[in-house]
Amino acid sequence: MTFTDRKAYRQEHAQPVLTTLYDSVMGINAPPKSLLGVAVTYLKNQWPYLIEYLNHGDVQISNCWIENQIRPFAVGRRNWLFTGTPESANKAALIYSLIQNCHLHDINARKYLEYVLDRAHDMRRDAKLATALLPQFIDKAVLFSVALVRWDY
To answer: In the chain, is it the N or the C terminus that has fewer CB atoms within a 10 Å radius of its CB?
Structure first.
């Protein structure tokens, strides 16, 4: 569906369901400290955010895809506790972000990092903008010409 079609579909089919849910929840009079009361309060507080997707056909209903994309960060967080200093943790997170971004854009991370590091001197001289070297802006054809260096230790 196009974004416009999806928005119209949501407003036609999902909005009545959500309206019925909201009306049902507003009729519940549970003690605020009970589990049901906490759940009702949470729904009431989050309601404007929950229904916002009805107004945007380009927004996905579920965030499962992005949750799966950031799962490695959540798992890695435990490992980053021992990176030494906050500065080194920021550097590690930057490299990790670049590698994950390469995966999202179907780019070989090793070739990408070699390509970017070879152009670090251009960034220092302001001959090349650092943002132009981000994975989403890199021409993949250029990366295929980069020869991988074999590191034998």
So the answer is: C
